[in-house]
């Protein structure tokens, strides 16, 4: 998989059995659509075995459909919010699509991520709810958890459509160790070409992708490999401007995300062969962790990040994923809150709910609807 | 080599082994593994006509049915279905292994076959012409399909109308036909030659028994056909037989809105369905008696031969 992403031109050398494994791994990593685009761009369709080509074609069709659907959803959201005079910032996949970045190529996105200034959040939410979007069924505790501590409100979905939208007001939970004032991001947004939506500045896009990669671990998947691919794609595109790297370093320091940038540059360069200027690597070196921790992360991160052989999952990799998942939660909120949250989740698992739901909950929920 | 040519013991061993078995089902190549011996025995019988293709290195899906924990063969037996190492649904009672495997395979094909247009329709063939029976659940599509498959029509599928987007042809995908509740007895009476598997009680769709695809439908599963008739069947108790022509725009809407991936395939799907409806005679069929319904459909096919 790594070799395929680093040097798509060599996909033509693969034997049918290699394709079988590559397709399975890429499917797991949700990178099948990306692989299909790489095959197309390298002009290699004719070298791909027919059965593999069909799977790639299927993935391409699905990606194209999703991209149309998400673009349309954003269009509808912007239309509904047009008289509010609120800058609607598109994030992640939708931003790559609307900004015409190569990171959107073959990227399978499933929901729309948006950000608005926190001061406008209530107006935006009520406008959306009034105009046909609905909340999913959500427990009171989860709803409160989202609103009090998280960086987004519970997902919304239009009654007639299938696409989830996540409205953010910052890119990190309020409780995160790395939390910073989102006004800093909003100060540097710009309009996407030919549209009403806004996007983050180039450096901020990279840093947001890194936040996703390193702080939003998933217990099953560990760190998401496709998030690393996003980071690498953005760096490759923006890095064509030599001045970009300095700006990126300065910005990371300003937002207190230097450590994340250190990991990001280190692992995109090591795993995906991203060309990072030596000066930039040196610049972030001081942000790195102390040697024993660096040694540990150098082992854990690739294990948790790289897709595995579907028939031979490794215990070591599962353990790394668990550790990094715990680390992500550790960084996400202070210990007391984390224990409260885990305790509350545990109680609910065994059926105790009353502790997390004050008596007014029912009326309040009713009014919110 | 066909599955039924294995001895049952060798077949169970192969399914349990590290590489499992590689089976060709219609246009798909499926790798299957299971250590659940009841399921292995049943697959030997019900999948018996399918050919193995161990030489095919590229597989469309890798399926497994496993016990959901080491103690599950004995304590509250439950199993889990995995495709490419992931479980799309939760564990299920172990005695429902075959229906769950068949639904799991349907799910898998529907998820990842957007290189084809997937119509929700039974499909049968006669003299190179395909009959499509698109219908909503409960309208008697599977029952009519099973009956036709044992009355001189070649079975393509009872669930998936696979349309090859390039050539606009329908591809055979002969699978077990799941009959529900009272349909099971209806087919036992109507087609004594049909090979029915055991009845699974209390699945999420009620009682289910499967009809094995007739041998000819499997041996000829690489012969596609072109759509010729679109018939929308509906079983209504005691209703007299009606076979009425249907206007094409209505047929178009019914085929398009009932497909699995019409929206995903997009413009190409619109064009394919359009061509298919234009090239077919479209009817609405209301029936209560299988023999009458089949005679009416035979008459359609007989007329076409001229």
From TrEMBL, chain A:
Lineage: Bacteria, Pseudomonadati, Pseudomonadota, Gammaproteobacteria, Chromatiales
Domain of life, source organism: Bacteria
Protein's UniProt name: Nucleotidyltransferase family protein
InterPro entries listed in its UniProt record: NTP_transf_5 (IPR039498)
The species this protein was found in: Thiorhodococcus drewsii AZ1
UniProtKB/TrEMBL annotation, chain B:
InterPro entries tied to this protein: HprK-rel_A (IPR027600), P-loop_NTPase (IPR027417)
Organism listed in the record: Thiorhodococcus drewsii AZ1
Protein name: HprK-related kinase A
UniProt xrefs under Gene3D superfamilies: P-loop containing nucleotide triphosphate hydrolases (3.40.50.300)
Domain of life: Bacteria
């Amino acid at each position: 998989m790594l070799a395929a992403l680093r040097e798509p031109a060599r996909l033509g050398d693969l034997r049918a059995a290699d394709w079988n494994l590559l397709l399975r791994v890429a499917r797991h990593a949700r990178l099948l659509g990306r692989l299909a685009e790489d095959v197309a761009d390298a002009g290699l369709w004719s070298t791909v075995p027919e059965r593999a080509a069909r799977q790639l074609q299927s993935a391409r069709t699905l990606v194209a459909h999703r991209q149309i659907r998400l673009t349309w959803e954003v269009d509808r959201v912007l239309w509904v919010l047009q008289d509010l005079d609120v800058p609607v910032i598109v994030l992640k996949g939708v931003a790559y699509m609307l900004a015409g970045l190569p990171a959107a190529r073959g990227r399978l996105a499933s929901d729309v991520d948006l950000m608005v200034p926190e001061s406008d959040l209530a107006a935006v939410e009520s406008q959306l709810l009034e105009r046909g979007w609905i909340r999913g069924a959500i427990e009171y505790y989860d709803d409160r958890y989202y609103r009090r501590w998280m960086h987004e409100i519970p997902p919304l979905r239009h009654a007639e459509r299938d696409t989830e939208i996540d409205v953010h007001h910052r890119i990190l939970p309020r409780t995160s160790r790395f939390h910073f004032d989102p006004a800093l991001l909003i100060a540097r947004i710009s309009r996407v070409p030919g549209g009403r939506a806004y996007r983050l500045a180039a450096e901020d896009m990279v840093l947001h992708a890194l936040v996703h990669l390193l702080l939003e671990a998933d217990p099953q998947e560990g760190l998401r490999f496709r998030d690393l691919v996003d980071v690498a794609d953005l760096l490759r595109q923006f890095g064509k401007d030599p001045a970009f790297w300095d700006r990126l370093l300065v910005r990371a320091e300003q937002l207190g995300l230097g450590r994340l940038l250190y990991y990001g540059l280190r692992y995109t360069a090591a795993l995906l062969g991203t060309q990072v200027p030596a000066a930039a690597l040196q610049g972030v070196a001081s942000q790195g962790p102390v040697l024993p921790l660096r040694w540990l992360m150098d082992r854990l991160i690739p294990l948790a990040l790289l897709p595995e052989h579907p028939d031979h999952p490794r215990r070591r990799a599962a353990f790394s994923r668990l550790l990094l998942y715990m680390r992500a939660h550790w960084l996400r909120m202070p210990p007391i809150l984390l224990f409260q949250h885990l305790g509350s989740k545990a109680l609910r698992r065994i059926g105790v709910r009353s502790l997390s739901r004050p008596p007014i909950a029912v009326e309040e929920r009713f009014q919110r609807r | 080599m066909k599955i039924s040519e294995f001895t049952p013991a060798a077949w169970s061993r192969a399914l349990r082994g590290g590489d499992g078995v590689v089976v060709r089902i219609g246009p798909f190549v499926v790798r299957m593994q299971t250590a659940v011996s009841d399921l292995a025995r049943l697959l030997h019988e019900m999948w018996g006509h399918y050919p193995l293709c161990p030489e095919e290195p590229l597989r469309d899906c890798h399926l497994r049915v496993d016990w959901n924990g080491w103690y599950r063969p004995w304590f509250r037996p439950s199993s889990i279905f995995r495709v490419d190492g992931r479980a799309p649904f939760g564990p299920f009672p172990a005695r429902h292994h075959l229906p769950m495997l068949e639904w799991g395979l349907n799910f898998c094909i529907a998820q990842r076959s957007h290189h084809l247009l997937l119509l929700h329709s039974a499909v049968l063939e006669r003299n190179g012409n395909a009959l499509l029976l698109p219908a909503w659940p409960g309208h008697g599509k599977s029952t009519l399909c099973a009956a036709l498959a044992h009355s001189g029509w070649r079975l393509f599928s009872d669930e998936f109308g696979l349309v090859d987007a390039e050539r606009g042809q329908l591809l055979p995908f002969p699978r077990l036909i799941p009959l529900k509740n009272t349909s099971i007895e209806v087919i036992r009476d109507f087609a004594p030659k049909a090979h029915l598997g055991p009845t699974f009680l209390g699945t999420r769709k009620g009682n289910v028994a499967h009809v094995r695809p007739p041998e000819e439908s499997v041996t000829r599963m690489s012969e596609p056909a072109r759509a010729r008739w679109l018939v929308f069947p509906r079983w209504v108790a005691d209703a007299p037989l009606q076979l009425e022509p249907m206007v094409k725009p209505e047929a178009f809407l019914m085929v398009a809105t009932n497909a699995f991936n019409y929206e995903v395939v997009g413009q190409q799907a619109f064009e394919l369905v359009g061509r298919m409806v234009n090239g077919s005679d479209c009817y609405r069929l209301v029936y209560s008696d299988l023999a009458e319904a089949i005679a009416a459909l035979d008459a359609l096919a007989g007329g076409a031969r001229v």
